## 1
Amino acid sequence: MTEAYSFAYLDESTKRMIRRTLLKALAVPGYQVPFASREMPMPYGWGTGGVQVTAACLVPEDVLKVIDQGADDTTNAVSIRRFFQRTAGVAVTEHTTEASLIQTRHRIPEAPLKEGQILIYQVPIPEPLRFLEPRESETRKMHALEEYGLMHVKLYEDIARHGAIATSYGYPVKVEGRYVMDPSPIPKFDNPKLSGNPAIQLFGAGRESRIHALPPYTRVVNLDFEDHPFEPTKADAACDLCGATTSYLDEVIMDDAGGRMFCCSDTDFCATRRAAGHAGRLAPGGEAA
Amino acid sequence: MEDPLSGGFADAPVQAARAFRAALEAMARPGRMQRLAGATPPAPLSVAAGTLLLTLVDDTTPLYLAPGHQGAALRDWIAFHCAAPLCAPEEAVFALGRWEGLPLERFRLGTPEYPDRSVTLIVEPPALAPQNAQLSGPGIATVQAAQLPETAAFEANRARFPLGFDAFFCAGDQAFALPRSTRVEAL
């Protein structure tokens, strides 16, 4: 650290405010705690909520990993990682297993998390009922009264229109049988990893000024129907780089003639597999296309 | 006589960060012991409780001091290091004291729409052992043993969920937390 930043950028009274919010969020899992979100040196929508939570949690001994849709090397991830290298002087890594604190935009890493790790989500709209009921005063009352029928109506309308629950990301969950929570726009493929996770999961929404949390080993249930059970979905293919069949895949358009490939959304998972000798359809030296 | 100006953090951003990380782990894993150090508060305050005050309490959070924790030395120390207004239990965001001194029925427990607007207790039991209660719920893989001053108050607190108080128990430089979401049974 050559520049004179206070450790992790934020001033101490702001950090105390965020820290008190985080403790209440852990005490009432799934409930959205309002906090006095600050302006950060990046625009809303670039993870200001996640950045504030990360700044409040970081210690100098941390090893930080930042991912954007699973990738360590995209603009958002690189700029947030460099922000904390500069303002907190922490070590950074791209390896999920080496990180003590992971800030993520819209993915949960493929490698299982363990105790001692903290996963911090960037959240755009924390209120799962917002698109069904725009008034904050009403959604607060609905949470207070545990009035979640509207959410089931929405999922039912999916089935009536498409024959299946078409919600594919930000899939609503119920936490410990009480609060319905939006897990941020992670693909529903990742939802099963929310429940019973040994790591601490914190969710920060900067523009909406809300923080919610899942303590480790919290019971998280995906909303569904007996005859239309929850199904985690992914592209029906294998990664063309590492050959993985169990990871969440991105589809990449290759040309203007319909050519396409699939690759792991989690770049660390894919690179680790390739380093271990796994090869996919399009990998150099892999099976011929 | 201790100087009320001493005993704070020497390097506040870093020491508060380490202390909060321990407090976060404590609240996330109820009943599990964490080391909380950095402050050297005047008697009768423990190191862990003093460190929690420095980390979480400031001029925006009214603080209730229970009988036994109202001495001039402690009040001066809190006034200088935290600047927290001292208040009646009804207005408290934090409350500090021995378990017997905390008037539980008078604290704020949050509202159905804002359950976070509730008190956080910083309790100073004489010791954190032997274990006499079994905890389960969010943050606990199976069960966790802990030392609690009683179990009835925590069973009632859990029954009110999502309303309720959250508590830290501090002795020496050790502390554990008990959020309202935890189910408590006597061992």
## 2
Amino acid sequence: MTDSIILQLKNVSKMYDDTHAMVDISLYIRKNEFVTLLGPSGCGKTTTLRIIGGFEEADSGDLFFEGRNINNLPAYKRKVNTVFQKYALFPHMNVFDNIAFGLKIKKMDKQVIQEKVERMLKLVNLNGFGKRSVNSLSGGQQQRVAIARALVNEPEVLLLDEPLGALDLKLRKEMQVELKNMQQSLGITFIYVTHDQEEALSMSDTIVVMNNGVIQQIGTPEDIYNEPKNAFVADFIGESNILDGVMEKDYMVRFMGRQFPCVDKGFDKEEKVDVVIRPEDIKVVPWQEGMLSGIVRSATFKGVHYEMMIDGEDYTWMVHSTILAPVDSKVGLSILPNDIHIMKKKVAS
Amino acid sequence: MKQRWLAAPYLIWMIIFIVVPMFLVLFYSVAEQTGEGWRLTGDHFRRFVDPIYINVLIRSIVLALVSTLICLLLGYPMAAILASREYSRKKIMYMLIVLPMWMNFLLRTYAWMTLLERNGVINSFLSLLRLPALDILYTNQAVILGMVYNFLPFMILPIYSVLSKIDESVIEAAQDLGGNNVTVFRRVVFPLSLPGVVSGITMVFMPAVTTFVISRLLGGGQFMLIGNLIEQQFLSSWDWGFGSALSVIMMLLILASMGIMSKYEQDGGGGALW
């Protein structure tokens, strides 16, 4: 894997009317990386993608492509291609002409175009669909055409704006695998926008978590899941129990009225912190053996595990466990130091 | 389809005022009254094959085509501006286009007579500026002007309606794939707007080719159009047979042009105003 940076955003900001879509975003993307911009709707991820694609102009900041500033380069001159959210296929053209659009503009030889499009159709599993009208295709097939139409131009970077959003769960899973395979076999940089954390975790090399136009955390899926930087990331990536706590000293945090050993240090004495505990990291034990206790309020079967809501003293815990504790029973809860994540409170704004 | 009977009032209306008159026109065009009743004849149609009448037809078609073309050249850019996202005075512009249609067609056309008169408003203004007078009333130009003025909204609205329905992301996709503005227009926007263009052309050409008011008022009756000819047969010459034959020819002509146009309208998604 080469380490060369292909795309870089430096202090990019963008406002729509009165809302900040992007606040001082700086970000670099390496060649052949699969980067996911993840966040709730309105967090600025699509705006970031549109600025990279050239459909939107930043209010301030710079955009570099292979080291060259491309702030003023119009979309049609950029070496990136986009797969749009609702595919945006040309309704007046058949599948072949849709895919060939970019090549025809480049005035390529007819024979070459024919070959390239055929190869693309094979790649996206749409062999023999060339003459079909795009309106007769299913959502999944249209999606594949959209991907083929972008990939056939052999872009350096492929931008994907929630490309699987309109597909059903099963098809989405299949397409996730296919997309990842394509990205690896073709060696193209993917910048992928989604609000689906599972999708982000399973496909990405790097995840950029955004909220309110601000980058919350950049890291590998493992980093983001295991070491969320703040309560927002913890809450957004997977489910979490988030409690108010106070850091007594290094390796010791107090919440729910008692002390817990933990593995974090470097906080001020008595600093107020967010304590994040994943539902699957809480063990249900007999009442007497627990560090905390509670009464099982509800239990829901989720397939692999049960999701139980357990009423503690003044907090309702979400616990995932493969062993079911009966509703209304009194149980103990136990948490390992390793599974207690301490996060700085957001600086008061 | 249980509520089919709800359509009955409209069906009756249509039969009385559209179907029956059509058949009457057809009947008169091929019938001749003789001493002992009606007799089938092709005379009315044969009478039309005369250079005088053929020229009237050709002149009508040419004037209508020129007006349609001007409407298209003026209307398409206007529709595109109206449909563009950045344009903020959309509502006002839309009003200005529709507003004249609230006034009576005859009044509007009479107004042009006063404007274009030798001592009319335009010429008074021109002479004030010591510019040569514009003397186009009672000429073909005045007729074309009248047609364009009266029918332009019918060109703008269907094109606008289709253009504003084009998905912005399709245009962005075309840019993304390397299309500059010209290419994007030529390969994506224009083809997608064709249904609107076809509707616009039909809606301008048809009234233009059959008009008799504009040609009489602004053309001063010097240049007879097919509409005037038909009007004359029914109201002055009382030759209902010939008038009906001309109407039938006109209808066939319109049907044929609609047939040609509908070929281009396929798979355009219906678009437009209807």
## 3
Amino acid sequence: MSQDLPAVSRLSDGALMVLFANGDPGAARALTTRLLPRALSHAARVLGDRAEAEDVAQEAMMRLWKAARDWRQDGGAEPATWLYRVVANLCVDRLRRARRLDPLDDPDAAADSTPGVEARMVETERMAALDAALANLPERQRQAVVLRHIEGLSNPEIAMILDVGVEAVESLTARGKRALGAVLAGRKEALGYDR
Amino acid sequence: MIDDRDDAGLEALFRAARGAEAPGDDLVARVLADAAEVQAELTAAPAPRPRAGRGWLGGLVQTIGGWPAVSGVTLAGLAGLAIGFSAPDLVDSWSGGQIWTLSGGAGTMPEIGALWDGTWEETGDV
């Protein structure tokens, strides 16, 4: 299988989807290497929970595999954009379900974790603080901020994923970033702002 | 309001978040197992076969919209025939007397004998 990787690594994601549907054994690994980290990162930041994010990423990848049979290489959606969209929707479903189950959930709870002394613990705390701050944002703002500032997608790509216009994306990311800054303002020292 | 320093701090935080969630081997293994399962189904399932060839009648029926359309057309034809035979004067009155006029007085229901002795055709203007 490893011998297939150099050949498939030059192919586009869409071409890999077609290869996957045709039974190519290297296509799944190449697509997983490229797309799974993005799906997981997106889900982890939006959900603020690693285990939930892994479930969402696995489910999204499963849907990607199942979509391979009907994938059109020309003119169809980009697999990465398609996957982000699936992840976004799965995250929204989970957030809404969690809100119904636990309406008194404190979004700042994760930020109250015991501060560590080692660098790894500091990083973990920073991510926890970021996740807690992101949890304060409305769903759409949170998705837009994560996709723009962490996943590094363009506004048109985000517009396709969230099914809104580009101007709406600009507004969502601007308002989201402003709100995030306000929430994190009180935690500058812990987050390394003042370093 | 976010000042430049806060903005830089946020950007640093975003940078730290990038790639912070690398998938573990266990997750990769689960995803690849899913892929193998789906791929086996995809390659095992025969491609959908085109339906067995339809005869000329089947083709004609499909052209006009399938058997439901055929039954609709048939029903409309039968209804028209029944109305024409049972109440020819009614049909003529719907036409405003045009059928009577154009037929030269033969009307919508000529005597059956007139059909082969030629009198209906000769008296008609059409």
